[in-house]
Amino acid sequence: MDTLEQLKQDYSRFPLNQTFALYTDDVYFKDPMTQFKGRDRYQKMITFIQTWFLDCRMDLHDIQQTGNFIRSDWTLSWNTPLPWKPRIAISGWSELTLNEQGLVTSHIDYWHCSKLDVIKQHIPGNSQ
Q: Is 7 exposed, middle or buried (0-12, 13-18, 19+ CB in 10 A)?
């Protein structure tokens, strides 16, 4: 199975059973909240999401590959484990760069909203 097809499957079951072997040992990850290098750190981030985000879901709207570049458009949503369990949604896109072996060397996420917009969704009456 090629990288694009495996990523589609990973999105459909996110954050469960992700295929970490698709990423190089020193993969670079960046989103509006954090940046780091390393597949181990990437795996820890996914485990954190799996552990603390309730009813987490990744809706894939589109995914395209051009050469060694993949772009995916998505909406990530979850309930935060606060007493009122607000439903949070972030729409955005990912840009992944592949090496010659088809492994992800860089994964950069962009959001269509600000960090403040995400925080506001946690206030009662402002959830998605």
A: buried
